[in-house]
Amino acid sequence: MMRWTHAVMLAAAVLAVGCSSNSTKELPPAELTKFSEEVRLDKQWSRSVGTGQGETWNQLELASEGDSLFAADIEGLVLAMNRETGKVLWKQELDLPVSGGVGAGYGLVLLGTLKGEVIALDSSSGEEKWRARVGGEVLSAPASNGNVVVVQTQDDRLIGLDAYDGRQLWRYDSTPAVLTLRGTGSPVVTNRLAVAGLSSGKVIAVDVERGIPVWEQRVAVPKGRSELERIVDIDGGLLLSGGTLYVVTYQGQLAALDLQSGRPLWQRQASSYVGVAAGFGNIYLSQASGSVEGIDERSTSALWSNDALARRQLSSPAVFSSNVAVGDLEGYLHLLSQVDGRFVGRVRVDSDGLRARPLVVGDWLYAYGNSGKLVAYTLR
């Protein structure tokens, strides 16, 4: 089975942009433009989290539960910190290549490894509760409803584990695409369903207790003569808002699905290998080209598009107060107005880049840079 490296994935994304402009040269990332700063990000604290994301296109994201913030690095260092002070509450060194994480909730901190393991730590002490083998690379955070932990592997398998002891409850197998982007999104887990996006451009929902399929919906149809052109991975994860599931594929579609039935509510053309965010009745999207868009979730019309960050390898967006926050390959965190997409603020977090989605909890934003720099911000 062929798999893409980070470099190939980005080359294809740039190629798509270059071809659309009839250019034979690889275009560099857009230069940052000046603007009048309207809001300011105030740094409250910062901390180093080991070696950070590593060099294999990991997107180790942050997680929170109560007053605690959790982060992990590629070498297996896991930190629990007080969200408002940054004080380390506990530290665990797993000495394993962590590639999927961090998931947190119901008293557990959940991580996946390149060696096909899922590890559960006690969220209050860092004590290892259990570990389970799942037989494939885990490139996104496991998710749980308190009873079942659901993990997706790189080869498009969904596995349900008992949240108490890690015992395997069920496994759902699907056939991955011939070529895929390196990565998967985290599953969405409810009391009834476990939902995941696949490399085939499909979304699958299974019964969370038994792993039996409930519905399947194709979001994007592979098109083109080459396998590169036919890649329609769902890598950015799924967003659940109310009873609506939002999903975006690479070289395909942005879609809204009814959670219970999988019925498409609307679709529009899009291409992204990161996820989406929601706020003010809108959906916010970082396109593979580097443009950021605001889309009305009722009419599906584009409210605004900001193309000034072209080819800057944007992170998934996050809604922060009345702004949309995205990171880029040079480690800048950009704030755009939810109303019209104009730039309102900017700060550099980590010169090695900002790949992981910013985490917003209340009035706080946490940014985790590629080199391991973790910074907590509030707005002035």
Automatic annotation (TrEMBL):
It is found in: Cell outer membrane. Coiled coil: none annotated. Part of the outer membrane protein assembly complex, which is involved in assembly and insertion of beta-barrel proteins into the outer membrane. It comes from Geopseudomonas guangdongensis. Belongs to the BamB family. It is a lipid-anchor. Keywords: Cell outer membrane, Lipoprotein, Membrane, Palmitate, Signal. One of its GO terms (biological process) is Gram-negative-bacterium-type cell outer membrane assembly. It comes from the Bacteria. GO terms for cellular component: cell outer membrane. This is Outer membrane protein assembly factor BamB. Residues 75-306 form the Pyrrolo-quinoline quinone repeat domain. HAMAP family: OM_assembly_BamB (MF_00923). Part of the Bam complex. Its main location: membrane. Residues 1-25 form the signal peptide.
